[in-house]
Amino acid sequence: KTKQGSIMSFFAKK
Amino acid sequence: MFEARLNTSQVLKKVLDAIKDLLNEATFDCSDSGIQLQAMDNSHVSLVSLSLRSDGFDKYRCDRNLSMGMNLANMAKIMKCANNDDTLTMKAQDNADTVTFMFESQNQEKVSDYEMKLMNLDQEHLGIPETDYACVVRMPAMEFARICRDLSQFGESVVISCTKEGVKFSASGDAGSANIKLAQTSTVDKEDESVVIEMQEPVTLTFACRYLNSFTKATPLCNQVQLSMSADVPLVVEYRIPDLGHIRYYLAPKIED
Fold first, then answer.
1. Residue in B204, B224, B212 with CA at minimum distance from that of residue B134
2. B25, containing H or E segment
3. 3-state DSSP helix/strand/coil percent for chain B, to nearest 5?
4. I need a surface site. Which of A9, B79, B118, B141 has the fewest CB within 10 A?
């Protein structure tokens, strides 16, 4: 089973 | 005053087609150096980053930085009214709440202009770090689109495994499983048709088919696509827009639950 994460968990807010 | 002209409307039509599947609206940030757009899709799984350099336009003027929030469905309605070979000019006054698209036919006998209301979009910008990727694959964009389309019949996810020998795309589900292997091409004479792999370390990552299929809407922009991957970081799918810039899609990998 795989889970989809958010792109925001990889790139910090500017 | 902002003014940007392209001698053919076709390229902006293609750019719009490449982003409107993922984004309902987006802010076009205009500056002296060109037009930038960065936006996440609604579910915040992927990120679109578009860059159009000012020197790629046939005329470009931007006196003051300008952020133009646009509804992309409305922009598409307007772009549909342009012939591919019409000259396109985008214009806005400083601090304006509208943008004008002007289309001129080749023989200058038909001139149309469409004014669109701008939106105030509260969009978050993410900082994307410079990364050395473990694997970079360059392959024909049509081939990548075909693989994404074919594999999405078999499952919601595609596993991409890259080694020095080649790149493998796999999907599985109720109907069975599918594997597509591409080897590095040996001939160098047909650059557009080549598959080139630069590998530091082998990588295996899982991605949602749905997003990959949306990214392939950029296929008409470029003959080749570049996939950059490292373990546990987003995939980068890059299409270069000849003489104008690029569009990059970032996609968060699926991880073991």
1. B204
2. strand B25-31
3. 20, 45, 35
4. A9
| C-alpha closest to that of B88 among B66, B61, B106 | B106
**Residue B251, CB-side half-sphere exposure with 13 Å CA sphere:** 28
Structure tokens at B55: 């020197």
On chain A, the residues whose CB falls within 8 A of the CB of B127 are 11-14
Cα separation of B239 and B242, whole Å?
9
Show residues of chain B in contact with A13, CB under 8 Å. 124-127
Residue with tokens 């270069």: B240
How many C-beta neighbours within 10 Å does residue B123 have? 15
**What are B181's strand-pairing partners?**
B168
Other beta carbons less than 10 A from residue B226's beta carbon? 21
SS3 at position B100:
strand
Indicate if ipTM > 0.90: yes
Work out the minimum CA distance from B155 to partner chain A, whole angstroms: 12
Sheet holding B59-62, edge to edge: B59-62, B2-6, B87-92, B98-104, B111-117
pLDDT of residue B164: 87
CB nearest to B250's CB, from A4, A5, A7: A7
Mean pLDDT in each 10-residue stretch from start to end of chain B (257 residues)? 97 98 97 97 96 98 96 98 98 93 96 97 88 97 98 97 95 96 85 93 97 98 98 97 98 92
Q: Which of B126, B129, B208 sits opposite A4 (nearest CB)?
A: B208
| Interface touch A11/B40, C-beta < 8 Å | no
How close A9 comes to chain B (CA, Å)?
9
